[in-house]
Amino acid sequence: MSTHDDQDDLKPTFTPGYKPGAAKSADEYAKLDAEDESLARWKASLGIVPGTSTGAAGGPKVTVLTLELASPTLPAGKEIVFDLKDTARLADTKKNPIIIKEGVEYNVRITFKVNHSIISASPPYLISRPFDKMEQMLGSYGPSTDGKPYTKNFDPEESPSGMVARSGTYNVRSRVVDDDGEVYADWEWYFKLAKEWS
Predict the structure, then answer these.
(1) Are 99 and 192 in contact (CB under 8 A)?
(2) How many CA within 13 A on the CB side of residue 101?
(3) CA-to-CA distance for 152 and 136, rounded, in angstroms?
(4) Which portions of this protein are annotated as coiled-coil regions (predicted)?
(5) SS percent in the chain: helix, strand, coil, step 5
């Protein structure tokens, strides 16, 4: 199967006329328009309170922790989860690809932490290229006040089926990137389609 190395394929698609706003820290958002009740409710929904930043202001805004493939058709007790810090396991999928059942609904799920800034005006996207370009927005989040990571379930997709689909190994390039071009995670993994999960 072909590998998609074109860096342009892994950039977010912009809406014509859209310009991302200037990035602000959680503390800056907490102090912004403090008397505006609707804005205060929005900030509270993101856990924005003065002094709640959990990471160094100079570090990454977002840390992506895991990628999971979820499907209602997975056998009981089976999980397909990658710790993105475990680069050896990701690299091993080139020799030992993950087996995905053909013709089933599945979705990608990631866990991540927001460290010191609000991700809203310039939200990160998960972009992958196994078959067609999949581009989905993370949404708006602030630093977690309890230190727990967020989980984002992306829209369901359906795996291809048929003898041709089962005939090769697929290389997936995935990236979490924002409108400003800042890359928070970038990884490759491999899978094969089969008649059953294994």
Answers:
(1) yes
(2) 16
(3) 10
(4) none
(5) 15, 35, 55
Per-residue DSSP letter, 155? P
What whole-number distance in Å separates Cα of residue 135 and Cα of residue 93?
A: 23
Between CA 135 and CA 138 the distance in angstroms is 10
CATH of domain 57-194: 2.70.50.30
pTM: predicted TM-score of the whole model, two decimal places: 0.73
Q: What is the DSSP letter of 168?
A: S
Q: At residue 140, does pLDDT exceed 90? A: no
**Is residue 6 predicted with pLDDT exceeding 60?**
no
Nearest to 124, CA basis, from 147, 105, 140: 140
| Cα–Cα dist 87/111, whole Å | 17
SS3 state of residue 10: helix
- Kindly report each contact of residues 44-50 with a partner whose C-beta sits within 8 Å and lies 24 or more positions away, as own/partner: 46/118, 46/120, 46/140, 46/141, 46/142, 47/142, 47/143, 47/144, 47/145, 48/118, 48/142, 49/145
Domain boundaries of the chain, sorted by first residue: 24-53, 57-194
